[in-house]
């Protein structure tokens, strides 16, 4: 398809809406949830009016790959059409490839961020303060340099606006010292494993964010995982510290938006067709490199 068109979701009224986020709609299946990834794109925490064709399906299928590859306890149950309720039959064409049936979990309202390289907001904060989210760093570090050890930098979740970076002590006050320590350990372990795997595919995972919840007293990985929306992916072949890197994520959109006279508040600007297509290609390239398969081979 040379000019794919973003899917416009038909209204799903057969089951209750559980929540609607910036890019995902979640429905209540009783003892489970149905997570549907739309083609909406959020940049600077603003949902833009221009969707990215196939984005929801690409990111869903990449998350499913990671859940299966990592093998850590998670909320993921199924992405198979046969497991959808019969009441959703009329939505099968839209839902194909872009949904997950997941366990209901009590969410920790903290985003758990692992930073393996000094980039993005971390680089800006370092330039201003010499630290990142309360973690003091040596002077003289270069942009995009590798961080050793990896930093754990939590953020308080905000489903509508900007997430708020917090230090570890604040996180302890929010979730308790024991859970804070456990979430930090899980975050750094999963990131380390994912980073090692991605390196064999020529991809640097510069940073990523995870979310966790509790089911039957056990802490599990939830939400999407290790996608271009939740991570910063760089091609290893072109990496060099001291500058910004090429990226497999929506950085292309951010860079375009930074050229505009826009104050990063709602409503966001429309994206031109070339930015949409180049962004879609970045998502597809990341998917193919990390999974070893073309996107269409994964669709059901």
User: What do we call the CATH homologous superfamily of the largest domain?
Assistant: ATP-grasp fold, B domain
**How much strand content do the residues show?**
25-35%
Give me the CATH fold name of the largest domain.
Answer: D-amino Acid Aminotransferase, Chain A, domain 1
Oligomer: single chain
Give the low-confidence spans. none
What is the element layout, followed by pairings?
Blueprint lengths: L16 E4 L3 E5 L3 E6 L4 E2 L2 E2 L7 H16 L5 E3 L13 H4 L3 E5 L2 E2 L2 E8 L2 H10 L1 E2 L2 E2 L9 E7 L2 E2 L7 E2 L2 H8 L1 H23 L3 E13 L2 E5 L8 E5 L15 H7 L15 H19 L3 H4 L2
Antiparallel strand pairs: 1-2, 2-3, 3-7, 4-5, 6-7, 8-15, 9-12, 9-13, 9-15, 10-11, 13-14, 15-16, 15-17
Helix pairs in contact: 1-7, 4-5, 6-7
Write structural notes for this entry.
This protein is of the alpha+beta class and 300 residues long. The chain has two domains: 17-103, 2-Layer Sandwich (Phosphorylase Kinase, domain 1), CATH 3.30.200; 106-249 and 286-292, ATP-grasp fold, B domain (D-amino Acid Aminotransferase, Chain A, domain 1, 2-Layer Sandwich). It has helices at residues 55-70, 92-95, 120-129, 168-175, 177-199, 251-257, 273-291, 295-298, and strands at 17-20, 24-28, 32-37, 42-43, 46-47, 76-78, 99-103, 106-107, 110-117, 131-132, 135-136, 146-152, 155-156, 164-165, 203-215, 218-222, 231-235. Strands 8, 9, 12, 13, 14, 15, 16 and 17 form an eight-stranded antiparallel β-sheet that branches. The model has no long low-confidence stretch (mean pLDDT 92).
Structure summarized in a few sentences:
The chain is of the alpha+beta class and 300 residues long. It has eight helices and 17 strands.
């Amino acid at each position: 398809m040379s000019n794919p068109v973003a899917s416009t979701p038909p209204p799903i009224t057969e089951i209750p809406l559980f929540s609607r986020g910036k890019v995902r709609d979640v429905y209540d299946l009783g003892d489970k949830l149905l997570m549907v990834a739309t083609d909406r794109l959020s940049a600077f925490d603003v949902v833009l009016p221009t969707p990215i064709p196939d984005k929801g399906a690409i990111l869903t299928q990449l998350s499913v790959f990671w859940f299966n590859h990592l093998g850590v306890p998670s909320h993921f149950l199924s992405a198979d059409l046969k497991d959808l309720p019969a009441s959703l039959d009329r939505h099968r064409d839209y839902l194909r490839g872009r949904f997950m049936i997941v366990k209901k979990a009590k969410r920790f309202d903290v985003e758990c961020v692992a930073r393996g390289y000094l980039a993005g907001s971390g680089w800006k904060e370092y330039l201003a303060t010499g630290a990142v989210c309360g973690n003091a760093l040596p002077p003289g570090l270069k942009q995009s340099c590798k961080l050793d050890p990896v930093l754990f930098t939590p953020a308080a979740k905000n489903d509508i606006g900007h997430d708020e970076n917090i230090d570890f002590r604040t996180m302890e006050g929010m979730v308790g010292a024991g859970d804070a320590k456990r979430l930090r350990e899980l975050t750094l372990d999963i990131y380390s494993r994912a980073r090692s795997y991605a390196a064999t595919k020529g991809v640097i995972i510069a940073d990523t964010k995870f979310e966790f919840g509790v089911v039957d007293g056990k802490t599990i990985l939830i939400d999407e995982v290790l996608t271009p929306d939740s991570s910063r992916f760089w091609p290893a072949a072109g990496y060099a510290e001291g500058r910004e890197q090429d990226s497999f994520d929506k950085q292309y959109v951010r860079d375009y938006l930074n050229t505009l006279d826009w104050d990063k508040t709602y409503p966001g600007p429309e994206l031109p067709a070339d930015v949409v297509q180049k962004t879609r290609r970045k998502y597809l390239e990341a998917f193919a490199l990390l999974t070893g398969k073309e996107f269409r081979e994964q669709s059901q």
